[in-house]
Amino acid sequence: MKKIFVGIDLGGTNIKIGLFDSSITLVCKTSVTTEADMGPEAVVDKMVQTVKKLLTNAGFSLSDIITIGIGTPGPAEYSEGVIIQSNNLPKFKNVPIRRMLSDKLGGRPVVLDNDANVACWGEYAIGAGKGVKDMVFFTLGTGIGGGIISNGELVHGCAENAAELGHTILYPDGRKCNCGQRGCVEAYASADSTARRACEAIEAGAESSLKTVLEEKGTITSKDVYEHLAAGDRLAKEITDGTAKALAITCINMLHATEPKRIVFAGGMIAAGDVLLKRIREYFDEHIWSIKKEPVEIVFASLGEDAGIIGAAALASHTFGQ
Amino acid sequence: MKKIFVGIDLGGTNIKIGLFDSSITLVCKTSVTTEADMGPEAVVDKMVQTVKKLLTNAGFSLSDIITIGIGTPGPAEYSEGVIIQSNNLPKFKNVPIRRMLSDKLGGRPVVLDNDANVACWGEYAIGAGKGVKDMVFFTLGTGIGGGIISNGELVHGCAENAAELGHTILYPDGRKCNCGQRGCVEAYASADSTARRACEAIEAGAESSLKTVLEEKGTITSKDVYEHLAAGDRLAKEITDGTAKALAITCINMLHATEPKRIVFAGGMIAAGDVLLKRIREYFDEHIWSIKKEPVEIVFASLGEDAGIIGAAALASHTFGQ
To answer: What span, in angstroms and rounded, lies between the C-alpha atoms of A55 and A68?
Structure first.
């Protein structure tokens, strides 16, 4: 019997599915559209059919599956395996997705966790976090997602909402965040907030080569900001410095909380590259205490788009053994 | 055979020692002066003699000891059982205190942890944190110490310096902290910083009934500030509001990090009572996100001065079983 671990990344637009061997090496993968408006039954059927097709194409059968992992956006009762609701999957309300998937995949055990935790676990298991036991993970996208690994286990918290690191407050009474709080790090340093701060500065009269972009496209992305930084724009420098400083201080705060050995940044904005990473490290060194030098490493994620399926399979393997 | 668990709280001035039964109920306790300037050998001998005396007085013998726990100020290599150095115990450098104690107490296993973690564990095991699996702990004294319990275990971090919660940064580029950072919550909301902010405001010309205290005593304590708050002083209100707000936002940040079910405040300043606790809860409710109501409880510690010996004994029991 072969041993196959299935990793599923269920998003609002696409479902990514991968088959992995017992060392979590990718065997094959695919991506299909979610068609979330068909409702949970149809989406689960689609996942099941896609898994079966992958198995057949690769010469495996349903009985080769050891366990299945699935990552979804929250909120969910992860340990119960139930998606409570989801902005990206509007028809999913109180869906017992773990049981539904298991029933249709030969009764194999399924583990459900949120997408940030799953990606965090992927990096921890075989990516940029490999080799440490204590790690903190940030995704820099529309918002800022987080994951914490302490002594080799994900920190889930009392109601499975731990590691909402984007909503730690960095500047009390500061910028309004989508969550209703003020001064969250997400309101400064996500890809969207980085772009938004640039827009606001230009609208308030700041001089910048980004002004033309805003006029032509009607909007600015974080990619634009980093491109104009590379071209020497002063406002882009100021905005990206603000982003790096916010992330660096959040790293310091997490160091003083769970003391990770490594902090891993993922998400679309890490495409900015070394200019972002270097600046985070500089602000970290500038603001960290002097009484002892901490051995923390700040790095970028290494798994890219596949972190979700890798993490889901790796977490399933960790949870249910091999 | 009786089962005795020994808890030791090693401070710079006093050593507190307690004997506990297997349900961590106090059998007897005592306190002796540390006389730290006699050096580690003499201090360990004193601890050993005191433990033996307690045993004899209570009708036990050395062989009744199951295990010993000891809490000390850091930094130390706790898992190695070695005190590296200590401001309060100046002659203690690289002292293998765990082995020294064990050798002289019948070879019984000894667990060493820092004083804040030990007190945190005491509250968790039988005090204000009893019944939850996820807890965060703050001590409000000269500084602000911390402890984190996640899924029923202390979070130690990669180099055993986790939960330095007083040094999470609350106001970037804010007040200078003793640790070298700026804007730490400790620089605003410890007992000492609360008093210091009052002094500074008066020296800067603020009107307050505390002015007389400062002139007569040359200093102000946090106790003075809370007494003058009770008497209706406006500056005392402003200062203590600042303290409560800083603590509340730090609670929010820890909620979004490890998601405790309960947050426990300990230390000298909780003597301020409900006026402090109520204000922390109010600021928490005012600043927390609106998207979901968290079930976190914010409470005061219940073990008082004995938290150290109780926690040390309870941690030893947890670590080495019964």
So the answer is: 13
The answer, for A214 touching chain B at a CB cutoff of 8 Å, is no
In whole angstroms, give the CA distance from residue A119 to residue A155: 14
* Cβ within 8 Å, pair B291-A182: no
Distance from C-alpha of B248 to C-alpha of A172, rounded to nearest angstrom: 11
Cβ count within 10 A of residue A288: 23
What is the b/e burial string over B76-101, where b = at least 16 CB atoms within 10 angstroms of the residue's CB? Answer: bbbeebbbeebeebeebeebbbbebb
What tens digit of pLDDT does each residue of B133-168 get? 999 999 999 999 999 999 999 999 999 999 999 999
Cβ(B211)–Cβ(B202) below 8 Å = yes
Q: Decide if A259 touches B, using CB distance below 8 A.
A: yes
Assessment of whether the complete model's pTM goes beyond 0.80: yes
143-162 in A: which are within 8 Å (CB) of B? 148, 150-151, 153, 155-162
Both tokens assigned to A47: 């996942």
A76 SS3 class: strand
**Helices H, strands E: what count in chain A?**
10, 12
| B277 inside 8 A of chain A by CB | no
- pLDDT, tens digit, for every residue of A5-52? 999 999 999 999 999 999 999 999 999 999 999 999 999 999 999 999
Q: How far apart are CA A320 and CA B84, in angstroms?
A: 40
Contact B257 A168 (CB under 8 A): yes
Q: Is B182 on the interface with A (CB under 8 A)?
A: yes
